[in-house]
């Protein structure tokens, strides 16, 4: 533990360093935090020491630990990850839990990435989930995650700015589209900027609702009467997204705060 702190203190806070250290201990030594504290005076093999050094070397270059180990936990499930897809965030877990408060028959996840939303919904409900993404690499990860978590998802490679040809209609459409403004880059941590896929993160300030407008537009064609649209959103644009939905005749629009008290989710109902 002192080794992690001495090497990483200029980059990460003490709490973050502790979390990173215990993640490594759990992954490499298969020891919980409490078991490690009981055994912390035991000598480590050279192989283990070298593994820790290699991980710390990568962490010092700001590489996210989720990419180093190639997985993360989301809603209690383990997901494979690669730099082809975003690292799932806690607010996205909150979005899935909000969706799970309702019952849906079939759903579509737009911009699925690692598949974390679609797979969580399929795992914890009886919904028949479909999911699309423009990235072939992300879809390969998502397919592996569906197998890993023992769910069946219909995955599709598709660019949402092209016509979506489907005979199906959905009770649920959910999306966590790119919403971080280019002007916000200066506030984004280096490990995000250097390693996570820019295409899935950023949007031009002058067209901040680009993806929302497109998804709202075709959602009206493929949502069933009474179907529900859920978005994760940039808190700065919450009321603009609400206004967009209102102008497109969606009803019962709700903005939900995350655990940090920020407006980060929207729910809207489509009624014919």
Question: Which tags fit this structure?
Answer:
272 residues; alpha/beta; Rossmann fold; two-stranded antiparallel ribbon
Précis, in short:
The chain is α/β, with parallel strands linked by helices and 272 residues long. It has helices at 2-8, 14-29, 33-39, 46-60, 65-69, 90-99, 116-124, 136-148, 190-195, 210-222, 238-247; strands at residues 71-74, 77-80, 106-110, 128-133, 154-157, 170-175, 180-181, 202-203, 223-232, 250-257, 263-270.
Secondary structure elements and pairings:
Layout: H1 2-8, H2 14-29, H3 33-39, H4 46-60, H5 65-69, E1 71-74, E2 77-80, H6 90-99, E3 106-110, H7 116-124, E4 128-133, H8 136-148, E5 154-157, E6 170-175, E7 180-181, H9 190-195, E8 202-203, H10 210-222, E9 223-232, H11 238-247, E10 250-257, E11 263-270
Parallel strand pairs: 3-4, 3-6, 4-5, 6-9, 7-8
Antiparallel strand pairs: 1-2, 9-11, 10-11
């Amino acid at each position: 533990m002192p080794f992690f702190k001495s090497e990483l203190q200029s980059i990460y806070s003490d709490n973050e360093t502790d979390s990173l250290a215990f993640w490594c201990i759990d992954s490499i030594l298969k020891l919980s935090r409490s078991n490690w504290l009981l055994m912390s005076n035991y000598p480590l093999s050279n192989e283990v020491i070298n593994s820790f050094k290699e991980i710390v070397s990568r962490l010092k270059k700001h590489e996210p630990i989720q990419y180093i180990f190639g997985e993360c936990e989301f809603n209690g499930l383990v997901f494979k990850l690669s730099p082809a897809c975003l690292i799932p965030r806690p607010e996205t877990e909150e979005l899935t839990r909000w969706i799970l408060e309702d019952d849906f028959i079939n759903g579509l996840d737009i911009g699925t990435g690692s598949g974390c939303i679609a797979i969580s919904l399929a795992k914890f409900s009886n919904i028949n989930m479909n999911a699309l993404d423009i990235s072939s690499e992300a879809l390969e990860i998502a397919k592996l995650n569906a197998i890993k978590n023992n769910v069946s998802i219909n995955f599709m490679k598709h660019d949402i700015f092209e016509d979506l040809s489907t005979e199906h209609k959905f009770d649920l459409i959910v999306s966590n589209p790119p919403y971080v403004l280019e002007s916000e880059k200066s506030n984004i941590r280096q490990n995000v900027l250097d390693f996570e896929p820019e295409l899935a993160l950023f949007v031009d300030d002058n067209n901040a609702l680009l993806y929302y407008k497109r998804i709202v537009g075709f959602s009206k064609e493929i949502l069933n009467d009474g179907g529900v649209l859920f978005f994760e959103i940039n808190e700065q644009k919450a009321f603009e997204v609400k206004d967009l939905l209102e102008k497109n005749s969606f009803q019962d629009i709700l903005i939900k705060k995350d655990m940090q008290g920020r407006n980060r989710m929207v729910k809207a109902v489509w009624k014919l």
